[in-house]
Amino acid sequence: MSIQLTNNTMTHTMQQKLTTEFIGTFFLSLTICTAAVYGSAGDYAPFGIAATLMVMIYAGGYISGAHYNPAVTVSIYLRGACEKDEVLPYIASQVIAAVSAAIIVESLLFPDALSPEMADLGTDAVVAELLFTFALAYVILNVATTESTSGNGYYGAAIALVVLAGAITVGSISLASFNPAVTSALIVSGKLALADSWMHFVPQFVGAIMATYVYKSTQ
Fold first, then answer.
1. What CATH number is associated with residue 42?
2. What are the tens digits of pLDDT across the range 130-182?
3. What is the number of H-type helices and E-type strands within the chain?
4. Can you give the residue range of the structural domain that contains 58?
5. At what angle do helices 14-31 and 180-189 cross, to 10 degrees?
């Protein structure tokens, strides 16, 4: 079976894969914290975030699979396109990268800025995170792990456009994370209360798992 994001990863060491996951997740989280949390990009934040994700996917896809998202890692594992012994190290690398990015943004890039206004999330945030994490994982599985689309050159753009669409559509509802690592960065940055974090973590993993089983049912 040909896997777009993982067909060459067997030639790379675990350390190379984890470094790639760290770099990609770090710059994705750095962009989110600067452009969206601290508002450096204004209304253009979703485009900056999507652009960063896209280039990092193309940069790291052939090494690690360019997951950059714990929910996506779980989804790809359940799909059968990721080894079991890679799951926890990938997730650890992603979360550490996201938290590191949030700390750097707060302490070095915006040391004198006021703390971000804490988001006030409701149950609609749960629905938003579930739906768009589902969409993100579903698109990834179809454009990046399916034999019929293997070798395509658009997979990075397709994945980034899902994030762009989600950020524009539900950013004001849920902060448009769709990514447990990014949610960790939002907590560290002070944008999301730890008590409200379940409104992200639960629907993100549930949405990604649902996407895997829907994907399998259509193949």
1. 1.20.1080.10
2. 999 999 999 999 999 988 888 889 999 999 999 999 999 999 999 999 999 99
3. 8, 0
4. 9-217
5. 50
